[in-house]
Amino acid sequence: xxxxxxxxxxxxxAAVDKKAGKIALMDVRGLTDLCDVVLICSAENERQxxxxxxxxxxxxxxxxxxxxxxxxxxxxxxxxxxxxxSVLVHIFQAAARDYYALDSLWPKAKKIxxxxxx
Length: 118
Hints:
Blueprint: H1 4-17, E1 21-27, E2 37-43, H2 46-64, E3 70-72, E4 79-83, E5 87-93, H3 94-100, E6 110-112
Parallel strand pairs: 2-5
Antiparallel strand pairs: 1-2, 1-6, 3-4, 4-5
Helix pairs in contact: 1-2
């Protein structure tokens, strides 16, 4: 994946299109060895978490030709994790997002503006 920030923007745009809320796109290069970019967003219910995940997966496949290495949580739907290697995507329902508070793990991360994000 050549440009991880551009890839993150594409994934975030897909989340916006499916009405995901509280979208946080963060550049975590130099802050963790796990990945370079983290996308965290919220969904209202199980159906929406799966819809957001499906849209991200489809958009990234069509635009970038990239499939996730792994997707976890689609069957439960309160937290879906999509692993694209350099980019990790987390789609939470509100209670799970508040409980795990991943947004606070990287306070020094550069926040990336996402068009249309709420």
